[in-house]
């Protein structure tokens, strides 16, 4: 629940900054005509709903059959091939971040992917787009 709340706040803050900048530009160009309409409230409500639902559709968990203690190097190589580096590494948990600052900025600094082991399986958790992309490589690297 704590991650969900943090992700909601992060998404709503990013959208609020984007909307504020957009309306500042619109206000300067139209002298405030668009800001006084009912459309502004609908526009803000849609972004609020998007911010509340974003953690549900933007993040995922995937399980892969693998022993992290035996295949740790393969897991790191799979993430390295997707331009991720190890941020933290413990016995049963590893965290990866994107190598490039530009890529981190593109993902709104939500680029962290966590790999947690529970013995036979590892759980990969993070942005849905990245987890799905890494999952295919991870399955290939783990099979080696």
Topology at a glance:
Layout: H1 2-30, H2 39-58, E1 59-65, H3 68-81, E2 84-89, E3 93-98, H4 101-106, E4 113-117, E5 121-127, H5 128-143
Antiparallel strand pairs: 1-5, 2-3, 3-4, 4-5
Helix pairs in contact: 1-2, 3-5
Summarize the model shown.
With 144 residues, this protein is α+β, with helices and mostly antiparallel strands.
Q: What attributes does this structure have?
A:
144 residues; alpha+beta; TATA-Binding Protein; 5-stranded antiparallel β-sheet; 59% helix; 22% strand
Explained architecture:
The protein is of the alpha+beta class and 144 residues long. The protein contains 5 helices and 5 strands. The protein has helices at residues 2-30, 39-58, 68-81, 101-106, 128-143; strands spanning 59-65, 84-89, 93-98, 113-117, 121-127. Helix 1 runs antiparallel to helix 2 and helix 3 (68-81) crosses helix 5. The longest helix is centred in the N-terminal third of the chain and has 29 residues, at 2-30. It starts with a helix and ends with a helix.
The counted number of beta strands is 5
Taken from the alpha-carbon principal axes, the silhouette is elongated
Using the coordinates above, name the CATH class of the largest domain: Alpha Beta
Indicate the CATH topology of the largest domain: TATA-Binding Protein
Portion of residues in helices? 55-70%
User: pLDDT below 50 for ≥5 consecutive residues: which ranges?
Assistant: none
The computed structural class is alpha+beta
The total number of structural domains is 2
Task: Please provide the ordered H/E string of secondary-structure elements.
Answer: HHEHEEHEEH
The CATH superfamily name of the largest domain is Outer membrane protein assembly factor BamC
* Gap between N and C termini: 36 Å
Strand content: 15-25%
């Amino acid at each position: 629940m704590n991650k969900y709340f943090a992700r909601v706040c992060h998404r709503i803050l990013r959208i609020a900054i984007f909307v504020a900048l957009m309306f500042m530009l619109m206000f300067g160009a139209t002298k405030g005509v668009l800001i006084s309409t009912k459309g502004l409230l609908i526009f803000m409500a849609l972004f609020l709903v998007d911010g509340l639902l974003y953690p549900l559709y933007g993040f995922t968990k995937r399980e892969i059959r693998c022993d992290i203690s035996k295949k740790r190097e393969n897991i790191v190589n799979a993430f390295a091939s997707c331009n991720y580096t190890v941020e933290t590494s413990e016995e049963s948990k590893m965290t990866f971040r994107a190598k490039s600052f530009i890529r981190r900025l593109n993902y709104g600094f939500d680029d962290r992917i966590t790999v947690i082991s529970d013995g036979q399986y590892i759980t990969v958790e993070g942005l849905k787009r990245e987890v799905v992309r890494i999952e295919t490589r991870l399955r290939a690297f783990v099979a080696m």
